[in-house]
Amino acid sequence: MDKVVEIESLKLDKSKWLLTPLGDLVKEISKRVDAPSESEFKRFVGLEHFVSGDLKIKKWGTTKDLASSVKAFQKGDVLLARRNAYLRRASLVEFDGCCSGDAFVLRENHEKVIPGFLAFVVNSKRMWDFANANAAGTMSKRVKWRDLANYEFLLPPREQQEKLAELLWSMDELIEQELGLLDSAKIQFQVKKNNLVLIGKSHDSVFSEKLKLERAADWNETTIGELVDNGSIVQIQDGNHGEIHPKSKDYIEDGIPFVMANVLHNGKIDFDVAKKLPQSITDKLRIGFAKPGDVLLSHKGTVGEVAIVPNEIGWPYLMLTPQVTYYRIDSSRLLNKFLYFVFTSNYFQNQLRRLSSQSTRAYVGITAQRSLKIVLPHDIGEEAEIVNTLSKIEENLAVINEKIFKSKALQESLINKVF
């Protein structure tokens, strides 16, 4: 963090910085590889492997089954996605390989710029604003190199390049450390959750089917259907609304959220993404409304996303699409947060995957959901203890996520400040 303070305290004197076209510093490489699966290259970077704002490529695929021609790149090049420039994808690559034809391969002129410096330049807001302004096309806009090469920015002298690069890469290393900590914490959380919701106790081993044999003796294996039929411990309903189908003209800025599968993410409902409907439309409907405390499960298209409807939603209910099921629970007999943890466990998600794969399109309807197995303690107090343990871990993960979010925001701010 000392490096960050050092950047913020910099009084950048840009009087000696030279206005320079991007094309003067880099060369676009278009080395074509016609048979990538038979080539010397093993790694392939497609557009799906780019992450907006990342300074380095961290994911890749294999050339094993590639049939169409691609572009070759070498370690130290910068890859820039020229299609859908609004996504702002450009990263340094630290290995040899090949990439999609919808990416530029940019090679720095190290007589004018130090290695890796371009990664900062092409991740500035100003550069991407230029790229978007010059992108063309009807269905999927692309930027051309002849246009991007004309982008001009202030280039610092080499000595200042080295100083800035040292500080900015230090910031990137800090983010990488935080991401590594998050990945480790997520694995530990999933292992503990799998053990607690399946066998009722912690276990040091990674989850496996064999752990079923060690389940606490007083835990009961049951199914969703049995919970529904057994005195309405659980009620389930999807968003099947008969003949009424909202149209795009019906949506308003401030109304009752219309919850589709794509707004359920990481245990939460993304209300910023969810479309809204006026009450004049929703009042005509009779079923498919989720209320605060309900557990939501996506079961069509995107299968297995889970969330709990928060108490502070601003409306007494949410409207669901046929993609989402609500689980309404008798809280005196089962805790909704316990069911939420069960639904997000590998034990339960594996069942969903098996069922959804039996359909031409991923789908697990209510009838199929009734067959899903879960195990429950007889004592709701034991559920509460497990919920408390897992909720504390979940809160720690949220703290790490927030720290990473702030670090990335600061990194972006610093790059924009310099370039």
Topology:
Blueprint: H1 2-8, E1 18-21, E2 26-29, E3 32-33, E4 43-45, E5 61-62, E6 70-73, E7 78-81, E8 90-92, E9 97-99, E10 103-108, H2 118-121, H3 125-134, H4 145-148, E11 152-155, H5 158-198, E12 219-223, H6 224-229, E13 234-238, E14 256-259, E15 264-265, E16 268-269, E17 275-277, H7 279-282, E18 289-290, E19 295-300, E20 302-308, E21 318-320, E22 324-329, H8 336-343, H9 346-356, H10 366-369, E23 373-377, H11 380-418
Parallel strand pairs: 4-9, 14-21
Antiparallel strand pairs: 1-11, 2-10, 3-6, 4-5, 6-9, 7-8, 7-10, 12-23, 13-22, 14-17, 15-16, 18-21, 19-20, 19-22
Quick structural gist:
With 419 residues, the protein is an alpha+beta fold.
Can you tell me about this structure?
The protein has 419 residues and is α+β, with helices and mostly antiparallel strands. The protein has three domains: 1-13 and 158-202 and 378-419; 18-155, DNA methylase specificity domains (Adenine-n6-DNA-methyltransferase TaqI, Chain A, domain 2); 219-377, DNA methylase specificity domains (Adenine-n6-DNA-methyltransferase TaqI, Chain A, domain 2). The protein is built from eleven helices and 23 strands. It has helices at residues 2-8, 118-121, 125-134, 145-148, 158-198, 224-229, 279-282, 336-343, 346-356, 366-369, 380-418, and strands at 18-21, 26-29, 32-33, 43-45, 61-62, 70-73, 78-81, 90-92, 97-99, 103-108, 152-155, 219-223, 234-238, 256-259, 264-265, 268-269, 275-277, 289-290, 295-300, 302-308, 318-320, 324-329, 373-377. The chain has a five-stranded mixed beta sheet with strand order 3-6-9-4-5, with no helix packed on it. Strands 2-10-7-8 form a four-stranded antiparallel beta sheet, with no helix packed on it. The chain has a four-stranded antiparallel beta sheet with strand order 13-22-19-20. A hairpin with an 8-residue loop joins strand 7 (78-81) and strand 8.
